[in-house]
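Write out C-alpha cells for NERD domain-containing protein.
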Amino acid sequence: MIGLAAGFLVSEWRIGVTIGAAALIGMIVHHMRRQSEVPRWRTPSAAQRKTEAQLRVMQKVGYRVLHARGIPGGNGQIDHFIVGRRGAFAIDSESWDKRLPLRNKLEKLYHGRFSKNERIDEALEEALVAQRLISEELGREIRVRASLAIYGPGMPWDSHRLRGVDIIQGNKVRKWLRTGKDRLTETEIEEIYQAALKVLPQRY
C-alpha cells in the first residue's frame, strides 16, 4: 500500500509539473505574439505601439513596414517607415496632453499655448533625409511623405497638412495611408523597402 501511495504521489507531481510547464509555454507564446516588433531592449512608447498595431493591418494588404529607423549622421528617428501601393511614408507617433486643444494659427501649430513647429520641422527633415538616401540608393527620385500621428488631444480634422507635414489623428493612420497619390507596383514597393532597410539603420 505504501508503495502504491508513493507511486500515486510521484505520478501526481509529474503531471502537475507537466501542466505547469505547458501553461508557462503558452503564456510565453501568447506574449511574443502580442509583443512589439521593436526589439525588447528598446521599449516603444504607448503612441508608437498604437500606430504599430494599425500598421499590422496594412501589412496584411501588402504594405511593408520598418520601425525605429535612425537617420545617419544625427540623433533623429523615424518611428515608422511604410511603403505600399499609395507611396512611401514616414510617421512619428506622439502622445500629447488631451486637456490642451490643438489649433492652427497662421501656419503654426499650437498645443494649448505651446508651439509645436519645431517638432513638425524635425519630422519633415527626417523624411527628407530618408527620401534623399533612398533615391540615391535606387538611382531614381522617390517621395517620402512626412507625418505626425498625435494621440490625446481632439482635432477638428482627421489629417491636416502643415509646413510640409501631415498632422494626423492617431487613430486615423490607416485612413491617412490610403490618401497617398502615388501608384507603386509590387516591384517598386519591394525595391523601396529594401533600400530603406539598407540606408536607414535600426535605431536600437
